[in-house]
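Hi, here's the filled form for the chain we discussed.

Project: internal
Contact: R.S.
Residues: 259
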Amino acid sequence: MPQVPRVLPGAESLYFPGGKTAVLFCHGFLGTPQSVQHVCQRIALNGFTVYAPRLQGHGTSYQDLARFTHHDWVKDIHTAYRSLRAKHSRVFIAGQSMGGTLALHTAAFFQDAAGIALINPAIDVPEMERAVTQTSAAFIKEERPDIRTPQEEEITYSHVPTASVHSLLELTASVSPQVSSISCPAFVAASRIDHVVPPANAVAIHENLSSSFKSFEWLEHSYHVATLDADRDFLAERLSSWMSSVVSADYFSPHNYIM
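And the returned structure, exactly as it came back:
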């Protein structure tokens, strides 16, 4: 029997009970729930129940990550969504970076999300595409996480499996044409300066969503990992305020729920 890899301290899934409306928060590629913990806690204090699951292969080792693909991460988020949806009348889906991609995928699949909140979402990442086409190595060295605030640290990996990057690119390619099919309320935030995912991703997603109720925010003081950066309190308050406005306006209207 293969040995179950040890989860790094602080990288575990997070659950904060708060209220009748739930928020499923998806962390990004190579990251863990630690990267969204502060925002999740602030949202919970504003009356929401928040769950941030650890995606398979994340928060363990980069060798372990190589065993999984985007199909596993999609399954993780779908399972989490079903679990929350069974207990809550409304479930928002939020995501940072690849977490935003997964949030889009989940909203397109289930069609009954109360709304989606996307932070520096990824559907077109040319730097990653160039990186994997220019190497035959199994692993690529990673730079320091893209965080403007120097004292903030993210639990992540020193290397990334090349196969995992390919799988991420397959995910973004499959989600991109689904954006226009999503009509639930949407909140999109983008860092003005992002060295990982071009801000044009967020702009294009916001424009192509079919949502009649949608909001866009520029984050002026953060880089890519905005949920750990200088705008995190601003982001948490704006997210909480936006979700409260969706709930109070009763924009949620259930569609067919796919079990």
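Let me know if anything looks off before we file it.
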